[in-house]
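Troubleshooting log. The previous structure file for this entry was overwritten by mistake, so regenerating from the original sequence record. Sequence copied from the archived sheet and checked twice against the printout by T.R.
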Amino acid sequence: MKKKLLIIFFLFFSAERLVCETNNSIIITVGNHPITRLDLIKEIKFIAILAKININESNKEELKNVAVQTLVKRAIKKNEVERLKITQYNQKDLDSQISIITKNLGLDKEDFKIFLKQKNLRYEDMVESFEIDLKWNTAIFKLYKNKISLNTIEIENKINAELDKVKSNKSLLLSEIQVNLSNEGLEATTNKIFSKIKEDGFANAARVLSISNSSKNGGNIGWVNENKLSKTIYEKVKNLKNGEMTGPILAEGVVIVIKKIDEKNTSYSLEDIKKNVVNQEKMKKLEMFSNSHYSDLEKRIKVKFL
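Regenerated output below.
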């Protein structure tokens, strides 16, 4: 598949052509859904805007790779939500996603629409891409909600474990970058991470380099009670000041760098802990079903590179 992706990539040799390209031929078909040259151009530009980076010679191939994979995955999901006739989704989730993006760019919603128009992009196209993911979530819930079974004893054990962990009322707001250890070794991998951080900032480095699910949020993993951290991580972050980063942390072939954003004192109620544990376990089950369902579709839906 990588060889096929390279064929697509060679069609876009310069950053200027990403803006000037007018040939809107179909370059990929995913089931019955075509992906055009213009779709690829727009997706690359959307990714660059959301990551707050400029398209240049050093990153264009990487952006193209991410864009092609994103478009194919979205098309597979779109095939499925259309097959299942899913039209509903959580509007609050959509509003939240848009709010996060506009806030990150320092714009309000209307200014953001104007900004996209200046880049020859449509706000409606971005919203549609979010809607597909949200409809996919609706589809997974409808398909598997009756298969979510939670082990009562396991839940109780997790609740008790959570109670033990929240003896401290101190929580840390953390961001992370996780990168597979390269064949060149720890030093080379570390240098790559910190060079990218220095060049583009921590959040953008996380979006481009990190293999963690938090990469789409710029590495942000949210507020974490300090007692929930592993001993190794805690020792690395406990003395950090806001804005400081750890050195490289090597864990099972993955190099991790953590940045401390903020800290606060928090209080927990038993009911909150129970609710959080149950919700987390349900979300884990749904994510498992989502990954499995997508994997099955990926095997069955024909992806053709033209």
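Strands lie at 26-30, 33-36, 170-180, 220-225, 249-251, 254-265, 303-305. Archived copy saved in two places this time.
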